[in-house]
Amino acid sequence: MASNGHTENTASMKRNKSFTELLGDNLTFDVKAEVFLDGHVKSMDQYNQMHKQSVEDPESFWTKIANQFYWKEKWSGKFMEYNFDVRKGDIFIKFMEGGKTNICYNVLDRVAQETPDKIAFYWEGNDPANCKTYTYKQLLDEVCKFSNVLKSKGLKKGDRVALYMPMIIELVVAMLACARIGIIHSIVFAGFSADSLAERLKDGDCSLLITADYSVRGDKSIDLKTVADNALKECGEDGVDIKMCIVVKNSSAEGDGTHSPKQKKAKTSVSWNEDVDLWWHDLMTGASNDCQCEWMDAEDPLFILYTSGSTGKPKGVLHTTAGYMLYAATTFKYSFDYHEGEVYWCTADIGWITGHSYIVYGPMANAATSVMFEGTPLYPDAGRMWAVVEKYKVSKFYTAPTAIRMLMKFSDDFVKKYDRSSLKVLGTVGEPINPEAWLWYYKIVGEERCSIVDTFWQTETGGHVIGGMPGATMMKPGSASFPFFGAVPVIMDEDGKEKEGVEVDQGYLVFKQPWPGLMRTLYGNHSRYQAAYFERFPGYYCAGDGAYRDKDGYYWITGRIDDLMNVSGHLLSTAQVESAIVEHSSISEAAVVGYPHPVKGTGIYCFVTPKNGIRFCDALVSELKQKVRTRIGPIATPDVIHEAPGLPKTRSGKIMRRILRKIAAGQTDIGDTTTLADSTVVDKLFTNRPQQ
Ligand code: 6R9
User: Which numbered atom of ligand 1 lies nearest the CA of 466?
Assistant: First the structure.
């Protein structure tokens, strides 16, 4: 393993050890069989047989599924074509090329035609008194109207539109409207800073930004429009002129209970530029609800979504139409064992891939009824999640370990006072789950009745690539268990040799062949795509995570093996945080590492060297934290800033992050330091550790 990977994986192995300590020999859990009598997959034999077919004969496996969708024209050529090996030429992946379809038509029109009054979303506002329902037909009307708005503004197939919006229904309307007429949407999480938004707008060469005046979360109100204005200004300064900004008036509904009195005060005015800004509601008034779909080629781009890259510059992951549609739909159906009539809730934000695949496209492709939640798990109190579960009788629930860890700090009474008897499947995503969190989720939330599905996947993979089948897979807490249909994971050693046998120790997690939902390129940068994912091990897709396989064939993900930190389930690059810090005029050098954090999973620990003559003080610490928030966004706020008169470096000047990681984790045994140019810097770092 790479030196940094090695340390991380050792830490994860220790974490897994405590599963044994906590659970004794009882490492495997079954679910209550009667809960899953009608499961889509009833046994491991059935799963094994289906998985085998999906990887040995992908064409017949996926064609059966593709036939359940509407195709304007079926594909005539090969079902799947690809090259995973850089030595043989450029990497490419194609599924069903030449077929013509439209994802919006498939997930919305078809359901609205068959069951117009079926509820697509129970929208639950930040304020518990504020909720609305949207049927498939209502949503279709809104989507058609907004598609016409986009067309009337001159937007056409292939253009890029950025969405910087709160968790309001207009976000779903806007993304589906884009998909309907072939516009590539690029959603930017509304917690990112103006700089981050500008960077993404420029990279995608977007012609329009859609935002809202305000967003509300908990007792906070965020002035999104000002962030959007600043981002547009930055783009202009760099010669990228974005001429249009459509703004949803999210603060309009006086008296609907959306806003606390404090928030009401904040929302009275919004900055406005007559040349650029347009109100969503003005444009929608009088727009026709009749809009034909644009028939898209299976391999036409559907969306761009940015994810952190090791070098600091975010990567614009590009997904295409038909493969993504098939994969989001199929993973949703099987991983959550979704059945007609059930209510499903994913607590993610649509600004992340989890929201794209498992709030919008996957559930809607299954004609599901979902909860869409604007608020936060702690508002108005720590019982909110379970109040919502009771209110809508949620049966499939999907959240992240960081949320579980946050909630389990409060009394179990917050959970127990609500009726959770509707729950059947509890999903988790974003990072490896620790044993305490798994057990709390299983025992307290799920009353030892529900299946816990630990879903491993990435922005790049489009949908789940490892995860169990509820009711069929015996659960091992902490293991994502088995590959999803179409995925062939392999554990690789340092030299690019596949580790053989069922039980193998940790190595690099790679995949041997594509599945329909795997990204096709990085927007505008195919060479970076090849370099980041395919060059390290020619012939394989390299996920960037470490993993091992146990004697029963279960996969255990051990964490990132690159310079990405998984903070509360979100990937952030150490390089990006470092470059924000060194922009401060008092800092000469910075090195950032992750460290174990009780709620976030990984916290952000920054070693900073002030310039000569600069005094390290609390004010400087606050300024540095602010700097990172402004550059990247609040999710990247450093947890610890540690003054480093010098950084541990090799004689060739490379920072030894292995040592910094140990210091950040509070470990004193830092191993071999003989390669250090100056070993006294380490002693100094031990003596001035900040209080945490
Ligand atoms: C969906 C999503 C991807 C990275 C991935 C890995 C980590 C996600 C996980 C998990 C262990 C799980 N990750 N799910 N690690 N167990 N169940 O999170 O996408 O934001 O792109 O992050 O998250 O490190 O490589 P993304």
Answer: 17
DSSP 366-421: TT-EEEEE-S-TTSS-TTHHHHHHHHHTEEEEEE-HHHHHHHTTS-THHHHTS--T
DSSP H helices in 24-79: 44-56, 58-66
Residue 259 confidence (pLDDT): 47
Are the C-beta atoms of 176 and 143 separated by less than 8 Å?
yes
- Is 323 buried (19+), middle (13-18) or exposed (0-12) by CB count in 10 A? buried
> What is the C-alpha to C-alpha distance for residues 439 and 22, in angstroms, rounded to an integer?
9
The residue nearest atom 19 of ligand 1, judged by CA position, is 458
Measured by CA distance, the residue closest to atom 16 of ligand 1 is 432
Q: Are 660 and 666 in contact (CB under 8 A)?
A: no
| Index of the ligand 1 atom closest to the CA of residue 352 | 20
| Residue 639 tokens, joined | 């947890």
Helix or strand or coil: residue 297? strand
Residue 681 identity (one-letter amino acid): V
Q: In this structure, what token pair is assigned to residue 283? A: 């444009």
Which residue ranges form the domains of the chain, and what is each CATH number?
Answer: 568-688 (3.30.300.30)
pTM for this entry: 0.91
Q: Which residues share a beta bridge with 483? A: 466
pLDDT of residue 21: 67
480 Cα nearest atom in ligand 1: 17
Expressed in angstroms and rounded, the spacing between residue 528 Cα and the centre of ligand 1 is 21
Interatomic CA distance for residues 399 and 259, integer angstroms? 25
Q: Take atom 4 of ligand 1 and give the residue whose Cα is closest.
A: 458
What residues contact 353, with CB distance under 8 A and at least 6 apart?
305, 307, 317, 457, 458, 459, 462
Q: Tokens representing 72?
A: 């304007």
Q: Can you tell me the distance from the alpha carbon of 256 to that of 248, in angstroms, rounded to the nearest whole number?
A: 16
The amino acid sitting at 445 is: V
Q: What are phi and psi of 233, to 5 degrees?
A: -65, -45
Q: Which residue type is seen at 127?
A: D
Beta bridge pairs of residue 589: 609
pLDDT at 252: 53
Among residues 609, 619, 622, the alpha carbon closest in space to that of 660 is found at 609
d(CA 509, CA 285): 51
Residues 24-29: contacts with CB within 8 Å, 24+ apart? 27/476, 27/477, 28/474, 28/475, 28/476, 29/442, 29/452, 29/474, 29/475, 29/476, 29/477
| Cβ atoms of residues 491 and 508 within 8 Å | yes
What distance in angstroms lies between residue 17's CA and the mean position of ligand 1's atoms?
Answer: 21
Mean pLDDT for each consecutive 10-residue tract of the chain (692 residues)?
35 48 69 76 96 98 98 96 98 98 98 98 97 98 98 98 98 98 98 96 97 94 96 96 96 49 56 96 97 98 94 92 98 98 98 98 98 97 98 98 93 98 97 89 95 97 97 92 98 94 94 98 98 97 96 92 90 90 92 94 96 94 96 95 91 82 90 80 88 70
pLDDT for res 654: 76
Residues with CB under 6 A from ligand 1: 307, 352-354, 429-432, 454-459, 480, 543-545, 557, 560, 566, 569, 571
**CA-closest residue to ligand 1 atom 10:** 431
**ipTM score above 0.95:** yes
